[in-house]
Amino acid sequence: MTDDTLMDQPHGPGIAAPGTILYVDSVTVSFDGFRALNELSLVIEPGELRTIIGPNGAGKTTMMDVITGKTRPDQGDVLFDGHVDLTKMTEDQIANLGIGRKFQKPTVFEHLTVFENLELALKCKRDTLSTLLFRLSGEQQHRIDQVLGTVGLKDKPRMLAGALSHGQKQWLEIGMLLMQDQRLLLLDEPVAGMTDAETEATAELILDLHKDPHHSLVVVEHDMEFVRALGARVTVLHEGSVLAEGSLDAVQANAKVVEVYLGR
Ligand SMILES: Nc1ncnc2c1ncn2[C@@H]1O[C@H](COP(=O)(O)OP(=O)(O)OP(=O)(O)O)[C@@H](O)[C@H]1O
Q1: Which tens digit of pLDDT belongs to each residue from 247-258?
Q2: Helix (H) or strand (E) segment spanning residue 187
Q3: Which atom of ligand 1 sits closest to the CA of residue 59?
Q4: I want to staple 65 with a disulfide (CB 3.0 to 4.6 A). Which of 70, 90, 227, 235 is the partner?
């Protein structure tokens, strides 16, 4: 199904967008009359990796805030998994649905070890009573080992998270989202502040996650080398709307995009 046919779906309660993991239609968010999002429409398919770029103030963070329930849109539809209306849900409910967000700055528990951070992420997925009674099963232990390998921290389970490099903290936090088995991962400028080697390793990590069709990934990023390394479809936001969409080469050759970036 193409984006155009999806946009033809009727609005209002009870709408559905089959075959999509994230469906954003005509979303507007205003702050004191200023439109941070202006009838924004965007569709992410299951298993897709999408990169979002755009100049400062384009609305990228506000879009993430709307998807995760931090900000309520003035109008528009936001559906998860083709039918779940995210505009009616709290941030906790949305996280429990399987939508995980990683903010630009790492927010790991610095005084806990790498292993304990992953263990905690697993516990947070559970209800309070079972958390109190929680003991790691062999299977869960195995899952933590697996995730340690995926995020490149296999040899650091006992290290305090506070002693990790900036890049390693970012990978640990991605590992925490994996422990929670999130299906839609929203990554906000994951390579900001990383060394070149860390940036390359992060691109490999994201491409690795993308191999698993269970994961859909939306990556907001300013670093064009990194965006190129991901090789994904790129959406360009500007003034709260989609300005262009396509391969990185295609959007970089788009006159409107060039004007927005160079005209500033
Ligand atoms: N709570 C708020 N109150 C008033 N204006 C806001 C608020 N949040 C965002 N804005 C404005 O909305 C616009 C979009 O901001 P947003 O942070 O979403 O952009 P962005 O694309 O994430 O920018 P950056 O790349 O700099 O992070 C900006 O002009 C910003 O000043």
Answers
A1: 999 999 999 999
A2: strand 184-188
A3: 18
A4: 70
Structure tokens at 168: 């390693």
**Cα 228 to Cα 225: distance, rounded to the nearest angstrom:** 5
Q: Which of 188, 189, 187, 242 is nearest to 215 (CA)?
A: 187
Q: Which residues contact 55 (CB under 8 A, 6 or more apart)?
A: 238, 260, 261, 264
Element (H, E) at 186: strand 184-188
Question: 34, 186, 224: which to mutate for ligand 1, most atoms within 8 A of CB?
Answer: 34
Asked if residue 50 lies in contact with residue 8, where contact means CB atoms within 8 angstroms, the answer is no
Strand partners, 19: none
Work out the widest C-alpha separation in the chain, in whole angstroms: 59
Query: What pLDDT, in 10s, does the model give residues 217-252?
Result: 999 999 999 999 999 999 999 999 999 999 999 999
ipTM over 0.90: yes
Nearest CA to ligand 1 atom 3: 31
Q: Which of 100, 101, 117 is nearest to 163 (CA)?
A: 117
